[in-house]
Amino acid sequence: MKETHSHPHIHINDLTKSAIKRLAISLGITLAFVLVEIIFGILSNSLALLTDAAHNFTDVLALGLSWWALRLATNPSHARRTFGYHRAGILVALINSTSLVIIALGIFIEAYKRFINPPEVNAGIMIPVAVVAVIVNIVTALLVRQGSEHDLNMRSAFQHLMGDVLSTIGAVIAGVIILFTGLNWIDPLVSILIGFLILWNAWGIVRESIDILMEATPADIDVEAMLMDMREVDGVRGVHDLHIWSINHSMRTLSAHIQTEDIPLSQGATIQADLTDMLINKYRVAHATLQLECEGCNPPDLFCELAG
After folding, report:
1. Nearest alpha-carbon partner for 275 in 294, 296, 257
2. Could you give the CA distance from residue 257 to residue 177 in angstroms, rounded to a whole number?
3. Is CB count within 10 Å lower at the N or C end of the chain?
4. Residue 290 to residues 1, 31, 54, 82: CA-CA distances in angstroms?
5. DSSP string, the chain
6. Bridge pairing between strands 252-260 and 238-246
7. For 81, left (φ over 0), alpha (ψ -120 to 50), or beta?
8. Cα–Cα distance for residue pair 113/283, rounded to 1 Å
């Protein structure tokens, strides 16, 4: 089996170092503000504010784990980790999103208790603290936004922070309504809305993380179209034992057996190079392992059964 080597290798570069630094700054800012929100949430007796503090604390954990995973992913591959440590970010994304689900369930339980017996909320303290929280969360979210569209780990941290932006805006709205109406039940109502928002943000990350860990075919790849494109490469007579999966959100891997005529090795190398170029340019598959076989090999099914 011959492996193509034209895929980009991941090294510690300026972009990675910048992401690590931005995560560290966001972590420090968020941790400091969590302490502030807890103090003023207790003083104002605001569940919305304490809810946001709890959510912010999960952000501290999320940012810390994301920072650790990003650092770990820069380590080179070796005999025990031939794909390196790129899956660390997926594990962290799954942990982060699962923690959001747990926090949301806790919010629903506490909100129910406060609907039954609504306590008095000090909106005069709640509003200014929530306004500051909006500003802090926007700043920290912008710090980790860069690269989040291509990295599930960074995206999970970014969604944690963006959830905080929206939840603190909700706390401001609740405080204003309570200030002018005295309707203290608005506070747990906003908390429930925040909880559903948290669940909505978490679900997409959980689903994609599980897909990657289960080595599912990337959702945007049409396997039939890919097979058609592979078979149209000059010299390819058939494709079988096809596997397509992801190491992380942006690193895609493929292995396949390629049928050809009974040709010299040098011609086979040309076919491999043409296939690799097509897979990189059209499907962003940066790591392809292609085994060439002549047409008389009697191939099995398209998708190989590994059991037994």
Report:
1. 257
2. 65
3. C
4. 7, 48, 49, 18
5. -EE---SPPP---HHHHHHHHHHHHHHHHHHHHHHHHHHHHHHHT-HHHHHHHHHHHHHHHHHHHHHHHHHHHTSPP-SS-TTTTTTHHHHHHHHHHHHHHHHHHHHHHHHHHHHHSPPP--HHHHHHHHHHHHHHHHHHHHHHHTTTTT-HHHHHHHHHHHHHHHHHHHHHHHHHHHHHH--TTHHHHHHHHHHHHHHHHHHHHHHHHHHHHTTPPPTT--HHHHHHHHHTSTT--EEEEEEEEESSSS-EEEEEEEEE-S--HHHHHHHHHHHHHHHHHHH-EEEEEEEEEEGGG----SS-----
6. antiparallel
7. beta
8. 51
pLDDT tens digits, residue range 175-192? 888 888 888 888 788 888
CATH label, 223-297, candidates 3.90.1300.10, 3.40.50.720, 3.30.70.1350, 3.40.50.12780 = 3.30.70.1350
Domain boundaries, the chain: 8-213, 223-297
Mean predicted confidence (pLDDT) in 152-161: 76
Q: Which residue has the tokens 């003023």?
A: 40
The first and second tokens of residue 115, run together, are: 């609907």
18-61 pLDDT tens trace: 778 888 888 888 888 888 878 887 887 777 667 767 767 877 87
Q: What is the mean pLDDT of residues 167-174?
A: 80
